[in-house]
TrEMBL record:
The active site is at K12, D160. ATP binds at P118, V119, A120, A121, G122, I123, A124, G125, G126, S127, G128. This is 4-diphosphocytidyl-2-C-methyl-D-erythritol kinase. Pfam families: GHMP_kinases_C, GHMP_kinases_N. The gene is ispE. Gene3D superfamilies: 3.30.230.10, GHMP kinase, C-terminal domain (3.30.70.890). Residues 224-295 form the GHMP kinase C-terminal domain. One of its GO terms (biological process) is terpenoid biosynthetic process. It catalyses: 4-CDP-2-C-methyl-D-erythritol + ATP = 4-CDP-2-C-methyl-D-erythritol 2-phosphate + ADP + H(+). Pathway: Isoprenoid biosynthesis; isopentenyl diphosphate biosynthesis via DXP pathway; isopentenyl diphosphate from 1-deoxy-D-xylulose 5-phosphate: step 3/6. Residues 86-166 form the GHMP kinase N-terminal domain.
Length: 320
């Protein structure tokens, strides 16, 4: 059993997002095409505090017991709760609760999340943290669950967690090489249901510039504002986001950002990711994306509170 694991917890983007209907349980059925982003937080988990190589005393922490395991959870971002409403906490809890009584379980777990991604931004940073914590907890317990079994557990943690699990397993495949079923993992998938139906598919490579207006948007608020809509297939509606109309109307900062990107970047497409407010400019040409990013970093049309990133999406890989 490994004594510690460090991994990148990657974010995702929606190349398409259609909201179909509100279900009796309050959730919404969706159709979406999700894909990886090269941007990430960092999750470190160990069986001892020393194994993390991090001075956890410098950060707010939550010491708790989950299924008899002492868990110390720290994050370098004080605005996020470290309790049971935190997706990373809930990811650890889901794995530990599912362990068989006679299965391997550590006496203690120490967890540190190095938060780099914006919060409430529509790129599933919290779901990526949950996925990373589930993968790491599973590995430190001897990999009792396969990737698909973790994805089933992940659906109870959050709607984006099943895809985040598959995508992060693929992007951290050297760390989780012993995970049963990892050969199925892809960085792109068609999503249905509330997010629990995940069909791996071929990624679509793009250079991407992401921009965030420095505000947060509540996913629940956007869902509750949408009327039930009938949709078409994911492929038919690539580069479509049902949530965009509401967010742009209700959040002038998000609309101003998208308008500025469309006016000043030479992207092939500009689309909001998830419930927003992060906007994504897609480029078929990586060179053009890099050129626009260099220009945008210091451009006069960029407001002081706007954040700009360049990365790639749709990691291409061979099958060996």
């Amino acid at each position: 059993m490994n004594s510690s694991i460090t991994m990148n917890a990657y974010a995702k983007i929606n190349l398409s997002l259609e909201v179909l209907r509100r279900r009796p349980d309050g959730y919404h059925d969706i159709l979406s095409f999700m894909q990886d982003l090269g941007l990430h937080d960092v999750v470190t988990m160990g069986l001892t505090e020393e194994s993390l190589g991090i001075c956890m005393q410098k950060f707010p922490s939550n010491n708790c017991f989950i299924q008899g395991v002492r868990v110390k959870f720290c994050m370098n971002y004080s605005a996020i709760s470290l309790g049971s409403d935190n997706l990373a906490y809930r990811g650890v809890e889901a794995v530990l609760k599912a362990l068989p009584e006679d299965g391997k379980r550590p006496e203690e777990l120490y967890l540190f999340v190095d938060k780099k991604l914006p919060v409430a931004a529509g790129i599933a940073g919290g779901s990526g943290n949950a996925a990373g914590c589930m993968l790491a907890t599973n590995a430190l317990c001897g990999n009792p669950f396969s990737l698909r079994e973790l994805m089933v557990l992940g659906a109870s943690v959050g709607a984006d967690v099943p895809f985040s699990l598959m995508m992060n397993a693929r992007k951290n495949r050297t760390v989780f090489s012993e995970l049963p079923g990892i050969e199925e993992a892809s960085v792109a998938a068609e999503i249905e249901g509330i997010g629990e139906i995940v069909r791996p598919t071929e990624p679509k490579p793009y250079g991407v510039i992401l921009m965030n207006p420095g505000i947060g948007v509540s996913t629940r608020e956007v869902y509750e504002a949408l009327d039930a809509q009938s949709g078409r297939s994911v492929e038919e509606k690539l580069f479509f986001n049902r949530m965009e109309e509401y967010t742009l109307k209700q959040y002038p900062e998000a609309k101003a950002l998208k308008d500025a990107m469309e006016a000043n970047l030479r992207a092939d497409r500009v689309l909001m990711s998830g419930s927003g407010p992060t906007m994504v400019a897609y480029y078929n040409s990586m060179a053009q994306a890099e050129s626009d990013y260099r220009m945008a970093k210091d451009a006069p049309w960029i407001r002081d509170n706007w954040k700009v990133w360049y990365t790639e999406s749709g990691e291409m890989y061979d099958e060996h």
